[in-house]
Amino acid sequence: MEIEIKDGLKALRKKLSDLGYVSVEAYFAIDFLNDGCCIKIGRRSSTALGSPGTNYFAKGDTFAECMRDANEHIDGLPSIGDVRRKEFTAALARLIEMGREVGIEEGFVNPLSDMMKKLSTNIIEGK
Hints:
Low-confidence stretches: none
Structural class: alpha+beta
Shape: elongated
Number of strands: 3
Oligomer: single chain
């Protein structure tokens, strides 16, 4: 059983790393009070100073159930490339709005707005 747990946790960490996440971790714990177990999965999307980490607690009555829950969670995560594209698009939208608020010339802001529309379309279409 110990080898199964160790190999399962390694596989979860590899899956997260393959998506591009950093500082990945996976821990298995038994909850004696509630007769169950959980796997804590931690990840960060950036190595930048102050970048927040995210934890997910996969739960189940058995290790196999915890692994199934953990795998389903990871399978639903976007790749780090998708996360960064979304962050870039949001930052660009804020800059365009800020430019309009402070009176930046339309000739400068409009091309940025056009690029923003193309980026949004590409993201939606998965390009």
